Amino acid sequence: HDSQTYRQRLTIGLVAKYIDNADTYLSITEALKAAAWAHRSEVTIQWINAETVTDAALSAVDAVVVPGGFGKRGVEGKIAAASYCLQHNIPYLGICLGMQVAVIAAARRGGMAQAGSAECGAAPDDAVIYLMPDQQGKQSTGGTMRLGNYPAVLQAGSRTAKTYGTTEVVERHRHRYEVNQAHLAAINAGGVVVSGTSPDGRLVEFVEAPTCDYFVATQAHPEFTSRPFRAHPLFAGLVQAALKRQKRMQKGKA
After folding, report:
1. Residue 153 in contact with residue 196, Cβ under 8 Å?
2. Is 212 annotated in the active site?
3. 178 belongs to the catalytic site
4. 150 three-state secondary structure
5. What is the SS3 assignment for 184?
6. Which of 52, 90, 145, 223 is the most exposed, fewest CB within 10 Å of its CB?
7. pTM of the model
8. DSSP symbol at 155
9. What is the Cα–Cα distance from 5 to 26, expressed in whole angstroms?
């Protein structure tokens, strides 16, 4: 493709802890490239180290992605990144752990100062992310992972449903921890609402921030179903919001 056909260049921040190993996030960077291509734009991935994340680094990009990951390292930085995007209306896509940190950020803003994840040692009363009751005691076995394709039902009229263009989706999963719906009041007070659940309503699969132009997060891994010429809707939605923000910022500077 002649690069002159591209009109805009975007910078998207990827808040990650394996900063030295781009291959870890290859499927996400490819999904971002496909989404940019679909919007006739080019994307530069700005790696932001989750352990040293700064407001300056976040405000310098057009959009932010917080990808999946396991373990404690860099989690506080990812929570800070989600919180900053929520507060400053920076387009945000959270994937797996990226959804969990968005929920924690919202709960803290909504009055639960110690909100955290059981995976990172949060006390039971503060664990807005927890091992589902039917998973407890099974940590040591391989059977505890929620693995494979699962359906979800999206809230009609939500940003998430509008982005997909439907209220019934199937996405790929790979996780053990879930949102504890007992804490939804604090999460909602902090600006984040549930926008999609498992068909039985037990599991939170998608969240969003209604006051932001595009702050969407999912417990699933949408990057695995993106294709070079068929961008995944969640990534395309992020790119679209990033282009809008870029235009608005340029107008502000004019």
Report:
1. yes
2. no
3. no
4. strand
5. helix
6. 52
7. 0.94
8. P
9. 25
In the numeric block, which tokens belong to residue 196? Answer: 């999609």
pLDDT digits (tens, 9 = 90+) for 6-51: 689 999 999 998 655 777 899 999 999 999 999 999 999 999 999 9
Which two structure tokens, joined as six digits, stand for 159? 């940003």
Which residue among the candidates 39, 173, 183, 221 is catalytic per the annotation? 221
What DSSP assignment string belongs to 84-147? HHHHHT--EEEETHHHHHHHHHHHHHTT-TT-EEGGGT--GGGEEEEE-GGGTT-TTSGGGSEE
What total of structural domains would you count in the chain?
A: 1
Beta bridge partners of 216: 93, 208
Is residue 183 flagged as an active site residue?
Answer: no
The dihedral built from the CA positions of residue 248, 56, 10 and 85, taken in this order, carries a sign that is: negative
Q: Which residue matches tokens 């006051």?
A: 211
d(CA 199, CA 21): 36
Instruction: Supply the DSSP symbol for 211.
Output: T
Q: CATH no. for residue 129? A: 3.40.50.880
Active-site pick, 85, 96, 171, 183? 96
Residue with tokens 């019934």: 168
Domain range spanning residue 35?
3-253
CA dist., res. 31 & res. 5, Å (int): 20
Task: Give the model confidence (pLDDT) of 106-116 as tens digits.
Answer: 999 999 999 99
Say if CB 76 and CB 104 are below 8 A apart: no
Mode of pairing for the β-strands spanning 146-154 and 127-131? unpaired
Which one from 178, 205, 208, 223 is the annotated catalytic residue? 223
Contacts of 108 (CB under 8 A, 6+ apart): 79, 83, 115, 190
Question: Look-up: residue for tokens 């781009």?
Answer: 22
